[in-house]
Design brief:
Helices cover 11% and strands 28% of the residues. It is α+β, with helices and mostly antiparallel strands and 641 residues long. The chain has a single domain, classed as 6 Propeller (Neuraminidase). The strands form five sheets. It has a nine-stranded antiparallel β-sheet. A six-stranded mixed β-sheet has the order 8-7-12-11-10-9, with no helix packed on it. Bound molecules: MU-OXO-diiron and calcium ion (CA) (2 copies). One calcium ion binds next to strand 9.
């Protein structure tokens, strides 16, 4: 594959390209083996009846579904395949902001042919919108939004085919990523960004950060430019979001590995070699996806081998203070962080649930040492605590395994930096790519989207089951029961004693996506709450609104053919946790992923992110496709969440 073609790949496809596996799999053989794997859910047939795989919680749910009226205030939207956004009758959408729109009046204008020049590229809304949260005080509302990655082909001169050729090119790419803080307001013309608001801020790949927690100051984090190991530059691949009870924003560093590379053949010690291998940092002399290392020595691991240890964290940002230095919290671990969903334990400790989005990686929970006291000092609450990793048992129970020096054989700092290895040491359950986690605001339960795992149960060229990066074979397990899982599922857990701080829980599957119109039964038909009307694949983004409805966003195959026939473009659906019912609410333009959801202070507006459309969205025929945030309201201005 040519370098230019690599720039067209999603991060996921790029990762897959670098991880060889058997490319063809006899489909009937796969289904046969999956169905015959009895006994693994206590002797029941795991597939064939959607309800059978769901555990007792879901069985009750499906029974209730028949008896209860729907709680949805809208009729289901049909699947769509065109280049724009659709919402149900009685609702309307509009564009709030596109990549490249100004946050400040001195920003350069967006030019469809040349994009934005480097000078001023940190004065506009970033590219590839992702997780977001809204904060408000009085009448002031701030929208804080992640910009996950950049399209190098669009941002660099056409003749370069996506490859940077100068340090200036790298600065431009770095400026379009990170986090945008912007004031928004609703007026006679609808919602607008308040250009030049004193709160507006761009945080990018060179913004100064403080490192705190158990790894701060450790040798693994020290570099030539920062011999203290406590001050880094930039936050990377900002994927999902989170918020704290005290009103700060959490941005989650996901595929940070892709920004690092080497310009020379490497001689590595065992610690660095193992770390780069487990986290996917390339040790080959190649330009890679961004080639930062070709023009910015900080990203060249032959010169600065500890720099990748300073990325892959949860970063806390105070949206109300543009001068505040963001804090990288090493206590919450280093992995490909999707999002961060908080809960409060009954004793006041802060619990943060987090997924590591890679095939066969794990789900985590962090519990603070200190308790949250409203109005008290919260500056160190995310600095001291204990990481745990999920182990799911086949009988519908699970345990959060504490990642302690005693149980992992690693120091506290090593657990913080090489969290994946700590999870492997205690034999955590390999998952089908944990994406967003959402905590129910009323019931003591939480949900995680397991988006898909095309390699679960697949065989390599030697006939062995494909492993994760730790070398653990990705055989099916209870919460990830499907081989070649192209559709995904959502797992739900209920902590014992109604305490998110408890170390044990019960779990079931809220939904297994599938396609019963293509696969009449078997594992690919999906669970009982999937039907011809609400087909989708690859659940990813997720939020639960104040009424307890689950909003599910997808990032999957939008071919609308074969296994994906009838699903249409990526979409956002609403789910009722009480009945199991799921209904399609919004569809994105062709090629896009729907990701990021939050609400206005009055809950009469939804903000929904549209990332990487391939259709000329939002400005129509002849325009450049641009990621954008749209607002969705009811025509009668009633509550929407
Ligand atoms: Fe950035 Fe796993 O999504
Ligand atoms: Ca995602
Ligand atoms: Ca995804």
């Amino acid at each position: 594959m040519k370098d230019a073609d690599i720039q067209d790949l999603s991060f996921d496809d790029w990762d897959e390209l670098k991880f060889p596996r058997k490319t063809t799999q006899d489909f009937d053989e796969v289904v046969e083996r999956a169905i015959s794997r009895r006994g693994f859910l206590g002797g029941v047939l795991a597939f064939g009846s959607g309800a059978a795989v769901m555990g007792t919680g879901m069985l009750k749910g499906t029974t209730a579904m028949a008896a209860q009226a729907s709680r949805f205030a809208f009729e289901q939207l049909a699947p769509q395949t065109d280049g724009t956004v659709h919402v149900p009758e009685g609702y309307a959408w509009d564009v709030l902001v596109r990549w490249g729109d100004p946050l400040f009046s001195d920003a350069p204008a967006f030019d469809a042919a040349t994009g934005i020049p480097t000078e001023g590229s940190d004065r506009v809304f970033g590219e590839n919108t992702d997780g977001m949260e809204l904060f408000h005080k009085g009448d002031t509302e701030l929208l804080v939004v992640n910009s996950e990655y950049v399209n190098t082909k669009v941002n660099l001169p056409v003749e370069q085919e996506g490859s940077p050729v100068s340090a200036d090119d790298i600065v431009r790419l770095q400026n379009f990523q990170g986090v945008s803080v912007m004031e928004v307001a609703e007026g006679a013309d609808g919602w607008q960004v308040v250009v030049d608001s004193p709160y507006n801020r761009r945080i990018h790949h060179r913004t100064p950060m403080v490192i705190d927690g158990p790894a701060a100051g450790h040798d693994l984090l020290k570099t030539e430019d920062d011999p203290t190991g406590t001050a880094s530059l930039g936050t990377f691949n900002n994927c999902g979001s989170g918020r704290t009870p005290w009103g700060t924003y959490l941005t989650c560093e996901e595929n940070f590995n892709g920004y690092f590379g080497t310009t020379e053949d490497l001689v590595l010690d065992d610690v660095h070699a193992a770390g780069f291998q487990r986290y996917g940092v390339s040790t080959d002399v190649e330009p890679g996806r961004y080639n930062y290392h070709g023009y910015d020595a900080r990203f060249d691991i032959s010169k600065h081998p500890n720099e990748p240890h300073r990325a892959g964290y949860i970063v806390e940002i105070d949206p109300w203070n543009p001068d505040a230095t963001p804090v990288k919290h090493t206590a919450l671990g280093r992995f490909k962080h999707e999002n961060a969903a908080y809960a409060l334990a009954p004793d006041g400790r802060v619990v943060v649930y987090m997924g590591d989005d890679e095939r066969g990686e794990y789900m985590y929970k962090w519990v603070s040492r200190d308790i949250y006291v409203p109005g008290g000092d919260t500056s160190t609450l995310l600095s001291e605590g204990r990481l745990h990793v999920a182990k799911f048992n086949d009988d519908g129970t699970g345990i959060w395994l504490a990642l302690t020096p005693e149980d992992t054989g690693m120091s506290e700092a090593e657990i913080a930096v090489f969290t994946r290895m700590a999870g492997t040491a205690v034999r955590a359950t390999t998952m089908d790519r944990p994406e967003w986690i959402a905590v129910h605001p009323h019931a003591v339960e939480a949900y995680c989207c397991l988006t898909n795992n095309s390699r679960r149960g697949a065989l390599d060229d030697n006939g062995n089951v494909v492993t994760n990066a730790a070398g653990e074979p990705m055989v099916p397990n209870a919460p990830n029961p499907r081989e070649i899982n192209r559709y995904g599922q959502i797992v739900r857990w209920r902590p014992h004693n109604d305490d998110h701080g408890a170390s044990t829980f019960d779990w079931d599957l809220y939904v297994m996506a599938g396609n019963p119109t293509v696969h009449a039964d078997g594992p690919f038909a999906g669970s009982a709450n999937i039907n011809a009307g609400n087909l989708f694949n690859s659940p990813d983004g997720m939020q639960i609104d104040t009424s307890g409805l689950i909003w599910i966003q997808t990032d999957g195959d939008d071919d609308n053919a074969g296994d994906f026939a009838g699903m249409g473009n990526n979409q956002m659906l609403a789910g009722d946790p009480m009945t199991g019912e799921i209904r399609r609410f919004l569809t994105g333009p062709k090629g896009s992923e729907v990701t990021g959801l939050t609400w206005s202070a009055d809950r009469r507006t939804m903000f929904v992110g549209i990332q990487h459309p391939s259709a000329p969205f939002p400005d129509g025929e002849g325009s450049l496709p641009r990621s954008a945030i749209v607002v969705v309201k009811r025509d009668d201005n009633a509550l929407v969440g």
